[in-house]
Amino acid sequence: xxxxxxxxxxxxxxxxxxxxxxxxxxxxxxxxxxxxxxxxxxxxxxxxxxxxxxxxxxxxxxxxxxxxxxxxxxxxxxxxxxxxxxxxxxxxxxxxxxxxxxxxxxxxxxxxxxxxxxxxxxxxxxxxxxxxxxxxxxxxxxxxxxxxxxxxxxxx
Length: 156
Known about the structure:
Helix content is 15%, strand content 44%. It is of the alpha+beta class. The chain has one domain: Alpha-Beta Complex (Nucleoside Triphosphate Pyrophosphohydrolase). The strands form two sheets. The protein has a five-stranded mixed β-sheet, covered by helices on one side. Strands 2, 3, 4 and 8 form a four-stranded antiparallel β-sheet that branches. The chain is globular, with a radius of gyration of 15 Å. The two termini are 14 Å apart.
């Protein structure tokens, strides 16, 4: 199993969170996640987060701080991911997925961007699962502390 460090960015607009829709090209399984991806070469977590957000959303972000850590075992791709989630305090630009084309395998999975309210999230597959409930409480408190929310798996 390959170890991988991945970053994700929480971007809010009008009390909704921006998520990226992924659709597995073979199975059709659909899930939503905050924009983000793997660290490349000698990138810092902040540089990787800025690059990944721009590639997946077209937005330019200013990052505030680390808010969450998670371990995700992705059996299908034989990856042990350490996910680091940051919060964006500012974003500029127009939301688009056009920047992913020609950048690798993401273009086969990423299909859409959308802002979701807390109640909207109850109707979709969203990862990490903490986004459905606990994140909204943490947001109200200004993400006062870094939270590790354990190990999740794709269960394959």
